[in-house]
Specification:
With about 280 residues, this protein is mainly alpha-helical. About 55% of the residues lie in helices and about 5% in strands. The protein has 2 domains: about 60 residues, no CATH class; about 140 residues, no CATH class. The C terminus is likely disordered. It binds zinc ion (ZN) (2 copies).
């Protein structure tokens, strides 16, 4: 009323008259009860709204509900709901569930399988479902690729190691594990070794060149370039009727790569009954 220019005395008279009409007595302290149960406070203008009647704020019109925290759902949920009606996520656990999924994704990115599983296990206790299954499947795949890469590194099979670690980086782009050389390290080694092998002049004595390649195979056991070079020297020696020398060289290759040569020999045997292990 003061805003409309009435003096204080007039305002007081008006209030007294209104109080008399409503039967309110100002002599005693007035007890006011505020009922908040079933009321929702608008996040924008802070006005209270009765949940039963309002989906949007009666004051500013903002939506009174909230969004489900499940990143795969994000449904609009009524403000007084306890559980998301679509995905059944308990809303009091919504933030925790979303954080655990985010943690699982970060751990997958790093190739940390153990922590991914732990985060999925905790999230599973809140809400089991395909969101967790897909992350656990990716963790299993990463685990398998880590084991394969570790095995290849132990055998110094750098060509195969490079192949598996590349696949690993597709699923875990920031993978790094102590004891397993990084993608960049393997790449650097392979490129440097290949460069040195290519630097062997064509004029080099073939047996000497083959021996240099055998030396490389000790440190890079599945180096196709070295294997092909040794095989071509074997063929050359056989053409020159130097069978004993050719056999010695072939024997060394078999010793260095027993598994691969065994498999190759079996395949040769199956296809044409010949099992030289060297000649195709
Ligand atoms: Zn509002
Ligand atoms: Zn939901």
């Amino acid at each position: 009323m003061e805003d409309f220019g009435f003096p204080i005395a007039v305002v007081s008279d008006c209030i007294s008259a209104r109080a008399d009409e409503k039967g309110i007595c100002f002599d005693r302290p007035v007890t006011i009860q505020v009922q908040l149960q079933g009321q929702i406070q608008c996040r924008i203008c802070l006005a209270w709204n009765e949940a039963r009647y309002y989906k949007s704020c009666r004051n500013c019109g903002s939506f009174l509900g909230r969004k489900c925290h499940n990143p795969a759902c994000r449904s609009a949920v009524p403000a007084d709901a306890k559980v998301c009606p679509k995905c059944r996520l308990r809303l009091t656990q919504g933030r925790r569930y979303a954080c655990l999924l985010e943690l699982a994704d970060t751990m997958l990115f790093l190739g940390n399988v153990a922590d991914t599983r732990q985060a999925c296990y905790l999230a599973h206790q809140i809400l089991p479902g395909p969101e967790l299954e897909s992350r656990l499947a990716r963790a299993r795949l990463i685990q398998r690729l880590i084991e394969q890469t570790r095995d290849c590194a132990a055998r110094k099979a750098w060509s195969k190691a490079l192949e598996t670690i590349r696949q690993l980086h597709e699923f875990a782009p920031h993978f790094r594990c102590p004891g397993i050389p990084s993608l960049a390290e393997i790449q650097r080694y392979v490129e440097a070794a290949r460069e040195k092998m290519n630097a062997i002049p064509p004029s080099q004595d073939p047996v000497k060149a083959a021996k240099i390649c055998l030396g490389y195979l000790l440190h890079w056991t599945d180096c196709e370039e070295a294997i092909e070079r040794i095989k071509s020297v074997c063929r050359l020696l056989e053409d020159q009727q130097k069978h004993s020398l050719a056999r010695q060289l072939a024997q060394k290759l078999v010793e260095l790569r027993p598994v691969e040569n065994h498999r190759e020999a079996q395949e040769n045997h199956r296809s044409n009954g010949v099992s030289s292990g060297i000649r195709h």
